[in-house]
Amino acid sequence: MSQGKNMKVYLAGPEVFFANGETLIQRKRALTLQYGFHPNIWMGDAEIPDDKFGSGLYISAANEVVMRDSDFVIANITPFRGFAADVGTSFELGFMCALNRPAFAYSNDPRHYEERIAGHFGGTLAVREDGVFRADDGQMVEYHDMADNLMLDGGIAARGGIVARPKSGPLLPADDLSMFEECLSAARRFFDGKSQ
Amino acid sequence: MSQGKNMKVYLAGPEVFFANGETLIQRKRALTLQYGFHPNIWMGDAEIPDDKFGSGLYISAANEVVMRDSDFVIANITPFRGFAADVGTSFELGFMCALNRPAFAYSNDPRHYEERIAGHFGGTLAVREDGVFRADDGQMVEYHDMADNLMLDGGIAARGGIVARPKSGPLLPADDLSMFEECLSAARRFFDGKSQ
């Protein structure tokens, strides 16, 4: 038995916002257990304050407690409402990286960040006169063959994790959890290797 | 002299991507000095690897070093290429919150997150049949009177920081640094209070 068997994982992602979010979250937790990990969740949801701002603070604080209590993180960084990962998920990934916990992420989008931006601007990304890779809006575009901003991909790589993405083809639907499973599988190897 | 005089601040934000980014970054550093803080920057940029992926890893690691070496963070969470903050900035905010460093943020957008989403969907946000506040795309919308995702606003509030925003009116232009100065001013009070 590897020590990984009792490892607690923080499942970060925007599923809570999805119309079918609860189903998806339950499926992710069940898969997590199948790979021998404990999906760490917050058990104290009976006391959420009534006011809008206060309830936000309360949920934030609770999530921070669960993160500190987790051994590693698997983050869904599939673009959410735009080109990039959900910002709450990105915050949580940074939080776990600062604690030096192993970090894994997946995106159901096969494209690099720069490919997504190029798609939006009609493929007009180019190195401009100033030598910088810019989109038609004049803004620089990161060009690192990464799934998203270099802080996310870089923080994960520095801690031995992976960013799982489809090798090619279309964006996978939100309820396709094959990339999530690639993370579970990689985490399994990571912790088994450490404990042998 | 307060101990805050020598405090190092990590200036997180998407300015590096802006067409006028370098000018803006220099202005922010100058203002930071005026408020008695040291704008912490990475001094080792002579060795960035040539390859795309490797250079991303290198910059990520360097930014992490500067963050750990900083006493607090001021993050520009003005929406970037969409509805929400830049994900790199969000990662960095989470990173600094995990280290329990005081965190401040500003947005040049006066609107709550839910107001921005409502604007995009033609004002059709509503509590749906299932009792959940959703946009027309069926996705839940956070409704906490916060500038962005509750992890960002919540993490900042928990560490005594503020999220500065215009009280009303239009989105301030990117080169308007009045909200940034509100953060500097709040940080000044925060550290002076602590050291008196």
Question: Top keywords for this entry?
Answer:
homodimer, 196 residues, alpha/beta, 5-stranded parallel beta sheet, 7 strands, globular
Describe the protein.
The structure is a homodimer of 196-residue chains. Chain A has helices spanning 21-34, 52-68, 87-98, 113-120, 150-158, 178-195; strands at 8-12, 38-39, 72-76, 103-106, 126-127, 133-134, 163-164. In chain A, strand 5 and strand 6 (133-134) form a beta hairpin. Chain A is globular and about 55 Å long. With 196 residues, chain A is of the alpha/beta class. Chain A is 40% helix and 11% strand. Chain A is built from six helices and seven strands, in the order E-H-E-H-E-H-E-H-E-E-H-E-H. Chains A and B meet through helix 2, helix 3 and helix 5 of A and helix 2, helix 3 and helix 5 of B.
Name the beta content range of chain A: 5-15%
Overall number of strands of chain A? 7
Rg calculated over all Cα atoms of chain A: 18 Å
User: What structural class should be given to the helix and strand makeup of chain A?
Assistant: alpha/beta
How many strands, what sense, and barrel or not for the largest sheet of chain A? 5 strands, parallel
Helix proportion range of chain A: 25-40%
On the 0-100 scale, what is the average pLDDT of chain A?
91
Q: N-to-C SSE series of chain A?
A: EHEHEHEHEEHEH
Distance between the termini of chain A: 9 Å
Give me the oligomer status. homodimer
- Helical stretch tally of chain A: 6
Shape of chain A: globular
Largest inter-chain interface?
A-B, 55 and 55 residues
Strand order of the largest sheet of chain A: 2-1-3-4-7
> Which regions of chain A contain 5 or more consecutive residues with pLDDT less than 50?
none
